[in-house]
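Final report, closing paragraph on structural work. Over the funding period we assembled a curated collection of sequence-structure pairs, and we close with a single example.
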Amino acid sequence: MESGSAVELKIKNIVLDRSQLRLAPFDLEGLIDDCHPARSIWELSGSLDLKRFEVGVKTQEGEAGRPCWPARLLVSLWVYSYTLGIASSRAIERMMSHEPGYRWLTGDQVINHHTLSDFRVGHEEALKELFAQFLA
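Its predicted structure, as stored:
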């Protein structure tokens, strides 16, 4: 640097382009460890009789109609949510895009809050009984 003369330094910054799409490998199983509560809840829900939650489902395998979310998944989501202290279907829907336990349970898909709420309201008594079984 010469004495008496001002030298202007130009800094070259990294440009952040958040609109750039990226394709990256994603390990869904690696999101949560083997002892994560979501895995335990999923395993336990698989051992329960959930037929009462499927009563009234109009979509059947091999027939016309839109597929529905499995009762085991919806039950597991509500049980997991209550363990986190979350009782709002809207909050659950928002968290499905970033919370690892929800992402693992849903296979990284988002279930809308109407479906979650309708399931809880439509099966209120059965869910209360089921929560008692989970606690036992």
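The longest helix spans residues 71-83. Residues 71-136 form one domain. We thank the funder for supporting this effort.
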